[in-house]
């Protein structure tokens, strides 16, 4: 096979968590490490793609050969993704916070004895995947999402495929006993209109390489 089968293609990848501010020193976040998303960006670059990686705050190194856009919030992540279009393929591996604090405090919220603790009111964040998948002529040819679930994995993944207008959903069980969230391995199934393909438990780097190969096959098939 050609050493750089994705030469001339642009891939957009999101990775990591988002941080949603409460006040200047506090935020809401989640346990995403960014490992799977970063590995996917690296694997696509290895195959010759020009890659834009839009990442939330993570403690891992930038993948080599990739343009990295660092963001904190979901809204910033959406803006960065929209600015990166057009793309041939988009992989949404970020664990975007579903909600943000409705009224961010301009100053640090003070703890005062005898005063009740603050109550945080949340409001939904934009769905980045669904927004990009609905981008009309700017919609990437291949839109890939993740479904990290702790129950009813396949049903949720299939529902997500339709609701978000994705082409594939990479479904993974992130129950605490799997060690997947933040770990080095992943066990995924690829859910698409063609059915469900279940892969063995693999290193996240190998999941990334296999996903990148599947992207090559599909983009080339679609253009043949
Ligand atoms: O609905 P749920 O969060 O489970 O969907 C997961 C998929 O949707 C992932 O691919 C994630 O990156 C993407 N997503 C997104 N923007 C959101 C929420 C999820 O892009 N606000």
From TrEMBL:
Keywords tagged on the record: Decarboxylase, Flavoprotein, FMN, Ligase, Lyase, Magnesium, Metal-binding, Multifunctional enzyme
Catalyzed reaction equations: (R)-4'-phosphopantothenate + L-cysteine + CTP = N-[(R)-4-phosphopantothenoyl]-L-cysteine + CMP + diphosphate + H(+); N-[(R)-4-phosphopantothenoyl]-L-cysteine + H(+) = (R)-4'-phosphopantetheine + CO2
Cofactor comment text: Binds 1 FMN per subunit.
One annotated GO biological process: coenzyme A biosynthetic process
Domain of life: Bacteria
Cofactor: Mg(2+); FMN
A GO CC term assigned to this protein in UniProt: phosphopantothenoylcysteine decarboxylase complex
Recorded GO MF terms: FMN binding; metal ion binding; phosphopantothenate--cysteine ligase activity; phosphopantothenoylcysteine decarboxylase activity
Region Phosphopantothenate--cysteine ligase, residue ranges: 11-224
Keyword Flavoprotein: yes
EC number of this enzyme: 4.1.1.36, 6.3.2.5
Protein family (similarity comment): In the N-terminal section; belongs to the HFCD (homo-oligomeric flavin containing Cys decarboxylase) superfamily.
Function: Catalyzes two sequential steps in the biosynthesis of coenzyme A. In the first step cysteine is conjugated to 4'-phosphopantothenate to form 4-phosphopantothenoylcysteine. In the second step the latter compound is decarboxylated to form 4'-phosphopantotheine. Catalyzes two steps in the biosynthesis of coenzyme A. In the first step cysteine is conjugated to 4'-phosphopantothenate to form 4-phosphopantothenoylcysteine, in the latter compound is decarboxylated to form 4'-phosphopantotheine.
Descriptive protein name: Coenzyme A biosynthesis bifunctional protein CoaBC
Organism from which the protein derives: Rhodopila globiformis
Covered range of the whole protein: 180 to 403 of 403
């Amino acid at each position: 096979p050609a050493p750089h089968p994705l030469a001339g293609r642009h891939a957009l990848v999101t990775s990591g968590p988002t941080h949603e501010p409460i006040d200047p020193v506090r935020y809401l976040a989640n346990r995403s490490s960014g490992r799977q998303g970063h590995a996917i960006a690296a694997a696509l670059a290895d195959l010759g793609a020009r890659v834009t990686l839009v990442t939330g705050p993570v403690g891992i190194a930038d993948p080599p050969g990739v343009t990295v856009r660092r963001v904190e919030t979901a809204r910033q992540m959406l803006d960065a993704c929209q600015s990166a279009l057009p793309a041939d393929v988009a992989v949404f591996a970020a664990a975007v916070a579903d909600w943000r604090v409705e009224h961010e405090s301009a100053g640090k919220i003070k703890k005062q004895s005898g005063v009740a603790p603050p109550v945080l009111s949340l409001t939904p964040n934009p769905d980045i995947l669904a927004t990009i998948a609905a981008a009309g002529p700017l919609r990437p040819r291949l839109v890939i999402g993740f479904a990290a679930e702790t129950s009813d994995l396949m049903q949720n993944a299939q529902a997500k495929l339709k609701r978000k207008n994705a082409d594939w959903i990479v479904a993974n069980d992130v129950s605490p006993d799997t060690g997947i969230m933040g770990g080095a391995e992943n066990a995924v199934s690829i859910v698409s209109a063609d059915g469900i393909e279940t892969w063995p438990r693999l290193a996240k780097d190998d999941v990334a390489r296999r996903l990148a190969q599947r992207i090559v096959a599909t983009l080339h098939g679609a253009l043949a």
